[in-house]
Amino acid sequence: xxxxxxxxxxxxxxxxxxxxxxxxxxxxxxxxxxxxxxxxxxxxxxxxxxxxxxxxxxxxxxxxxxxxxxxxxxxxxxxxxxxxxxxxxxxxxxxxxxxxxxxxxxxxxxxxxxxxx
Length: 117
What we know:
This protein is an all-beta fold. The mean pLDDT is 95. 0% of the residues lie in helices and 53% in strands.
């Protein structure tokens, strides 16, 4: 069983910054993409940002220009730098790893991000 190790998150005032990190105990050769989703009560989980193994990135419109996703040189750690946070960014953030093997993906346990107004 693959366990993703998430860190970061917490409580911050609007306009502040937080950084999330996720490490996957996987060979970089087995990873197609890594990133972050978020979910609020009663809502579907939504993609926040993803980075592919070739470095290509994809962001939700709501975070474009405020969040930056990056991965380590080793390729199995992904960070999400979140700036200019807004109360609507409050959610549980989940790390997601999409494997090279078709249909296989892994999820972290989730980390709470709370932005106060």
